Amino acid sequence: MKRFCDVILSAIGLLVLSPLLLLIAAVIKLADGGSIFYRQCRVGWRGHPFLICKFRTMVVQTTSDGPLVTSDGDARVTRVGRILRKTKLDELPQLWNVLKGEMSLVGPRPEVPRYVQRYSPAQRAILKVRPGITDLASIHFRNEELLLKNAPNVEEFYIEYCLPRKLQLNLEYAARANLLTDTWIILQTICPRWLGVLIVYSLVLAASFWFSCLLVLNSEWPPRMDRAFFGALIAVVAGQVAALLWRKQYRGLLGYFSMPELKEVAAALGVACLLLLALSGLTGRTWPPRNLLLEDWIVSVCAVSGFRLLLRHRRENASLGETTLGNAPVRVGIIGAGAAGSHLALELMFKRQFGRSVVAFFDDDVQKWHKLLHNIPVIGMPECLLEGWAGKLDEVIIAMPEEPVERLREIGRLIRQAGLRAYMAPSVHRLWFLDHFSAESRL
């Protein structure tokens, strides 16, 4: 089935994309008069070598000189070549390799023989899979040239650090490859991540605008799916997406969302709302109504933030699979019932993948003794660890970033005396303390 899809899709791709292929070929030829294609020996399926075909992106004189990988700003890459590499259009001629059976649409990227010679026996298992135009490594290493930009030796850095990670990703792909995963990889390859993020934002914002229309009861603006509605929808969503682009919200990880991201989203959508209100005042037009724009700002902030919180929740729940179920959680005591200790306790309480349960707090502040913090008792001073708590705890975390150095050393001695495993949760103001902590007092 995979080979059948490769043949059909590569043939259709060559046919449909032939005008684009001819245009790229003409541009390359007119740019410097050199050859259009670049062929290089790669190791393919079952270790058989073949010639991979790509659009030439480097100057003719040095195509075969220097390292086999390039970094950002490599002088050998032509101006046209930089565009082709950035857009991955230089890979399109490989559809011919797919049609011939040397490659697949999705599969591990084939490497040159001298890199394959460095494979370990476990890594050579990847040669049992037909190589492809794109794979998981191509997606995650989309900006590989930027990774290599500051490497003192580009090729050594690539072989030692990049290649093993690529092979690991490809081995993971090979273990669970199917038509669905191949389709998803192709979609991620065609659609850059930032474009996907903007599409998601656009859909969420469009739904927010429609919902706002339902909330605002205005005889002059009934929420009907007519030309006026769609015109206002496009104007509002375009302005909001442009504002999110301005605040660089397309670069953030969607599954990570907290107060800083909330402020940026609210500010971006607020600016869009103000601009739309100003545009409405300058043009004298009342579509969409001003009260609807204000309502939509509130709804859109809630919708975007809620969507990102949902993704964050899904990511954190998915990470629960990283821990083994059935094991008793590690019993933790936190020294420090201040802001740092409180935040740390919340992290451990709500992120069960850490496999830890906070049992008690200890603090020097007498006003906190015998109180509850997040329903966890504050026992007393850290010296209470010596009063039978050694058998009730498995480890201790010190979360007192502003505590004097001498007091931290005293607490370190107490923990060693109690025979407990301990960790430090420092602030940036106390990082120097870790560097200068003597071997005798180190926890």
What tags apply to this protein structure?
11% strand, 443 residues, alpha/beta, 16 helices, Rossmann fold, 3 domains, six-stranded mixed β-sheet, two-stranded antiparallel sheet
Please tell me about this protein's structure.
This protein is an alpha/beta fold and 443 residues long. The chain folds into three domains: 2-190, no CATH class; 194-319, no CATH class; 330-436, NAD(P)-binding Rossmann-like Domain (Rossmann fold). The protein has 16 helices and ten strands. The chain has helices at residues 2-16, 18-32, 79-87, 94-100, 113-116, 136-140, 144-147, 154-175, 179-190, 193-215, 227-246, 259-283, 290-318, 339-350, 405-418, 431-436; strands at residues 37-43, 49-55, 104-106, 132-134, 330-335, 356-362, 372-373, 376-380, 395-398, 421-424. Strands 7-8-6-5-9-10 form a six-stranded mixed beta sheet, sandwiched between helices. Strands 1-2 form a two-stranded antiparallel sheet. Strands 3-4 form a two-stranded parallel ribbon. Strand 3, helix 5 (113-116) and strand 4 (132-134) form a beta-alpha-beta unit. Helix 10 crosses helix 11, helix 10 (193-215) crosses helix 13 (290-318) and helix 11 packs across helix 12 (259-283). The longest helix is centred in the last third of the chain and has 29 residues, at 290-318. The radius of gyration is 29 Å and the shape is globular. The two termini are 59 Å apart. Mean pLDDT is 85; it is low at 428-443.
